[in-house]
Amino acid sequence: MTNDDEILEILGDEYSRKILSILAKNEMNALEISTKLGIPASTTYRKIKNLESLVLIKKTKVIRTLEGLDESYYKSLVSGIEVKFRYGEMSCKIEKFTMDEKIQRLWEKFSEK
Question: Minimal CA–CA distance to 44: which of 54, 57, 34?
Fold first, then answer.
């Protein structure tokens, strides 16, 4: 399976698209994502793993809970994905957030508090 095929498979999955969408706006952990989408944690972890393997999201931090467990937080790296079908060939162009957009998101996060 090519990288484009894997991206199309991800885009074809409703919850993977929703995870990309919410992580574009907010940094969240798997439990928060699972709760927000109303899906099992195991499904959420599987989708996060797939999105990470395609470098569409990344782990931003790991926090140790009071129970001694590690809690990972994730953020989307993608601002857009363009899919083209031309002359029988499928291609995907991934647009990543620029540094300006990252700074703007950080500023918005601080201004919310």
Answer: 34
Strand bridging mode 28-29 / 57-64: unpaired
**pTM exceeding the 0.70 threshold for the entire prediction:** yes
For 1-113, list the strands marked E by DSSP.
28-29, 57-64, 70-76, 78-86, 89-96
Q: How many CB atoms lie within 10 A of CB 63?
A: 10
Long-range contacts of the stretch 25-31 (C-beta < 8 A, 24+): 27/60, 27/61, 27/73, 27/74, 27/75, 28/73, 28/74, 29/71, 29/72, 29/73, 29/74, 30/72, 30/74, 31/71
pLDDT higher than threshold 70 for residue 100: no
Contact between 73 and 28 (Cβ < 8 Å): yes
Q: Give just the sign of the alpha carbon dihedral 30, 41, 14, 112.
A: negative
C-alpha span between 20 and 69 (Å, rounded): 25
